[in-house]
Amino acid sequence: QVLLSKLYGPQGTFTFTSYISGEHIICFQSNSTRFAVIAGSKLRIHLDIRVGEHFLDESAIRAKDKVNEVNIRLEHLIEQIHHVTREQDYEREREEKFRKTSEETNSNILWWAIVQTLILISVGIWQIKSLRDFFISKKLV
């Protein structure tokens, strides 16, 4: 089944979109009456075959690529924002835990200082009482 038969000048392009899968055959035929090798001219054919879904409008492809690029950058920025938010939450939790630990440590240090002071006062009172009793027993006072 011939889908396209067209006569072109020295240059020409055509696009073919197949809506069914299968084997497709492309034939080129020169309309020159001279044999190309004897005449010294060359026949140049550039064939660009794209398989799969392709857009025919190059400007639409470029626009879509730019939109995709912007979309990818936007997704990357959103992911970075989420990462920064998670990092800030983590740092807040660590700061809160550190603050609690510091307050507990300060409270423990305060109680330890009070206990040490009471021990020193009680040892001092005990020493004074012991020395007084010693001096009284030795009759030095």
Automatic annotation (TrEMBL):
Coiled-coil ranges per UniProt: 60-87
Membrane-topology annotation of the record: Single-pass type I membrane protein
Predominant cellular place of this UniProt entry's protein: endoplasmic reticulum
Listed transmembrane segments: 109-128
Highest taxon of source: Eukaryota
Domain GOLD as annotated: residue spans: 1-51
Keywords: Coiled coil, Endoplasmic reticulum, Membrane, Signal, Transmembrane, Transmembrane helix
Matches recorded under PROSITE patterns: GOLD (PS50866)
Location in the cell: Endoplasmic reticulum membrane; Membrane
UniProt xrefs under SMART domains: EMP24_GP25L (SM01190)
GO CC term, one of those recorded: endoplasmic reticulum membrane
Lyase recorded as keyword: no
Keyword check for Transmembrane helix: yes
Family designation: Belongs to the EMP24/GP25L family.
Record protein name field: TMD11 protein
